[in-house]
Amino acid sequence: MFLEVVFADEDGDGVDDEDDACAGTPAGENVDANGFSESRKDDDNDGVFNNLDACTSSKEEIEVDENGNKSNPGVYYFRTN
To answer: Which residues contact 21 (CB under 8 A, 6 or more apart)?
Structure first.
């Protein structure tokens, strides 16, 4: 007797739904162990997903455009604590 266990993977990314922190991954995208693809990550927290981000190391206090580039390249921001 064989028992087949099938786990749900609604978005087809290879990560079981119960472990998938990012449901709805677009078809064909590679994902990490948590189910996140580059089009769903924003490593520098600038509001632009990694796959569209031209500058992946923006500082949080810098305003960026839709491509992740500094909105006003001539203006510099400094934190004051």
So the answer is: 34, 35, 36
